[in-house]
Write a structure and sequence with these properties.
This protein has a single domain, classed as Rossmann fold (3-Layer(aba) Sandwich), CATH 3.40.50.1220. It contains 9 helices and 9 strands. The strands form 2 sheets. A 6-stranded parallel beta sheet has the order 3-2-1-7-8-9, with helices on both faces. The chain is elongated, with a radius of gyration of 18 Å. The two termini are about 15 Å apart. About 35% of the residues are buried.
Length: about 240
């Protein structure tokens, strides 16, 4: 049977779907992923992307951190793509119960989805380390050098940097997966822990993995589609 047709049948036969997505979900919107040959981690640089986006660099040299962060993670003008739009439609039908995303671009929220667990945070949430006042992403990305609060404190993006713990919503995402009868995993290499361990919590009916490349969890899946996400999701009803 055609894999798209099989995927559609699985969706039609499910009532509690959870979507778990990574950087590949947003590449069709023009955002670089991390681990592909053209991704952020493979760009020539004096230091690794992991170090440039680490807690250690942020606190030791916020100027260097923000120069890298602003140059590479500003996606304020980026729009949702076919995958985001399909997931909004699936939520509106009452089938999609939650989106778990490793992305910090906020595109699922822009697309109109309501139940989104941003387990690596979001560029749209920023706060002062001193007084905890909230600041918008526009303020952060338009600030000269290191964005500072009115109180003089440094503003930190509420994104999970290397070396930091995942937020509380990670627990909520675990619970959502354990209740799901279908888990769609898309656009992620499933190599980053603890996020990738979420797949092992699923005990429902259908596990589907959609990704350009193979993942370590393919053998667990009921259906694996190695293709472009836009091509796949634009064919679904």
């Amino acid at each position: 049977m055609n894999k798209i047709k099989l995927l559609q049948e699985m969706i039609d036969n499910s009532s509690n779907i959870v979507f778990f997505g990574g950087a590949g979900v947003s590449t069709d919107s023009g955002i670089k992923d991390f681990r592909s040959k053209d991704g952020l981690y493979n760009m020539k640089s004096k230091y690794s992307a992991e170090y440039m986006l680490s807690k250690d660099l942020f606190y030791s040299d916020p100027t260097a951190f923000y120069e890298y962060y602003k140059n590479n993670l500003n996606c304020l003008d980026v729009l949702p793509n076919a995958t985001h739009k399909y997931l909004k439609k699936l939520e509106d039908k009452g089938k999609l119960k939650a989106i778990i995303t490793q992305n910090i671009d906020g595109l699922h929220t822009k697309a109109g989805n309501k139940k989104v667990y941003e387990i690596h945070g979001s560029i749209y949430n920023n706060y002062c380390l001193k007084c905890h006042k909230f600041y918008s992403a526009d303020y952060v990305f338009s600030a000269k050098d290191v964005p500072q609060c009115n109180c003089g404190g440094i503003i930190k993006p509420d994104v999970v940097l290397y070396g930091e713990m995942l937020p509380e919503c990670f627990i909520d995402s675990q619970e959502a997966i354990m209740k799901a009868d279908m888990l769609i995993v898309a656009g992620t290499s499933l190599t980053v822990e603890p996020a990738s361990s979420l797949v092992r919590l699923f005990s429902g009916k259908y596990l589907v993995i959609i990704n350009n490349d193979k993942t370590p969890y393919d053998k667990m899946a009921n259906l694996v589609i190695n293709d472009n996400l836009k091509k796949v999701f634009s064919q679904l009803k």
